[in-house]
Specification:
This protein is mostly helical. The longest helix has 32 residues.
């Protein structure tokens, strides 16, 4: 991908917090996130994980309460689990193609 620039749409910290709060309250935040990210764009898991890690650093530095920090950590775990599922599925698919 040398020389190819890709437009990246990312949520700012305030938008991330809003989405996480909605998720913690059991609400669906996917529509809000999609609106912000211009429907149709797909964010790779690695980029999502990096954003959540950045958010985690932010909430830890700003002294948010333990529940908020735990919620962000849980999102990191969720993303890693999803990444592992996809990787496992790719391996199975590759194996079956052989």
């Amino acid at each position: 991908m040398s020389g190819v620039k890709r437009k990246r749409n990312v949520l700012n910290v305030e938008q991330k917090l809003e989405v996480i709060q909605k998720l913690d309250n059991g609400e669906s935040a996917s529509a809000d996130a999609e609106d912000v990210l211009n429907e149709g764009n797909t964010i790779p898991h690695s980029a999502a994980l990096q954003s959540v890690k950045t958010l985690l650093d932010y909430v830890e530095q700003r002294g948010f309460d333990y529940a908020d920090i735990s919620a962000v950590r849980k999102r990191c775990v969720d993303i890693r689990q999803e990444m592992n599922k996809q990787q496992k599925q790719r391996r199975i698919t590759d194996f079956l193609k052989q």
